[in-house]
């Protein structure tokens, strides 16, 4: 049976990563109350929210496979979600300045027959940031829909000194591992062998 991948997300970054590796999909965002997940452990929280998103997405056809993910930024055990306003974004970036923080992305894949979940972790070190550097980044309006108030794939790259682990995990989807896990659900990249 041919499988159809459903991305349970409205994240343009996750969509772009699937497109990058030629995996066809349909986006089907679910509005879930992430506040239902109260775990103080960032790794556990990322996995539980991914599970919640996946399980809240209706499988409307037997061949559908759901992919859901959630990314959590944490520093010394404190979870940094999406900032509510500029002041909160500034405070997050000031706290991350000069420090090494963790980025966890929880991923859940499920079909009518099976379910799999995992969490990928990447360490990110920020440069020590001046007030002017933080203000310049906030002026890009890049902070407000991203955990930890920054996006490594855009101007936020200027804040990052070093990463240890999967870069794409910080973007929002550890695509290399996701491809391998999707293979267990008979979802594969489309490889075009035609030569010009």
TrEMBL record:
Site keyed Important for substrate specificity: positions: 13, 71, 153
Cofactor annotation: a divalent metal cation
Primary localization: cytoplasm
Coiled coil: none
Residue spans crossing the bilayer: none
Active site (UniProt): 70 (proton acceptor)
Annotated Pfam families: Maf
Keyword annotations from UniProtKB, A to Z: Cytoplasm, Hydrolase, Nucleotide metabolism
Location relative to the cell: Cytoplasm
Enzyme class: hydrolase
SUPFAM superfamilies given in the database record: ITPase-like
GO molecular-function term, one example from the UniProt record: hydrolase activity
Catalytic activity: UTP + H2O = UMP + diphosphate + H(+); dTTP + H2O = dTMP + diphosphate + H(+)
InterPro entries: ITPase-like_fam, Maf-like
Entry's EC annotation: 3.6.1.9
Keyword Hydrolase part of the UniProt annotation: yes
UniProt cross-references to CDD domains, sorted A to Z: Maf
Keyword Cytoplasm in record: yes
Domain of life according to the entry: Bacteria
Function of the molecule: Nucleoside triphosphate pyrophosphatase that hydrolyzes dTTP and UTP. May have a dual role in cell division arrest and in preventing the incorporation of modified nucleotides into cellular nucleic acids.
Family under the similarity heading: Belongs to the Maf family. YhdE subfamily.
The name this protein goes by in its record: dTTP/UTP pyrophosphatase
Taxonomic lineage: Bacteria, Bacillati, Bacillota, Bacilli, Bacillales
